[in-house]
Amino acid sequence: MKIIITREEAVQKGIWEKVMKMFGVDQDDDTYANEQFILTEEQAKQLQLI
Predict the structure, then answer these.
(1) Burial 13-36 (b: 16+ CB within 10 A, else e)
(2) pLDDT at position 16, please?
(3) Which end of the chain is more exposed for a tag (fewer CB within 10 A), N or C?
């Protein structure tokens, strides 16, 4: 199973920092609020989304 989360959703859930680390995104990188990140089931469990 794959889970899609946007940057905006991750920020709202308070997990944006963790998502950034998972995908190698820096504070200096440009990201859009609607930018999507595809999580594996294991990643989603680590972030307590499922």
Answers:
(1) eebbeebbeeeebeeeeebeeeee
(2) 96
(3) N
CB 49 within 8 A of CB 18: no
- Virtual CA dihedral for 41, 37, 27, 48, nearest 10 degrees? -30
**Considering the entire predicted model, what is its pTM?**
0.85
> Rounded CA gap, 28 and 5, in Å?
20
* Distances in whole angstroms, Cα of residue 10 to Cα of each of 26, 39: 15, 12
Alpha carbons 2 and 5: distance in angstroms, whole number:
10
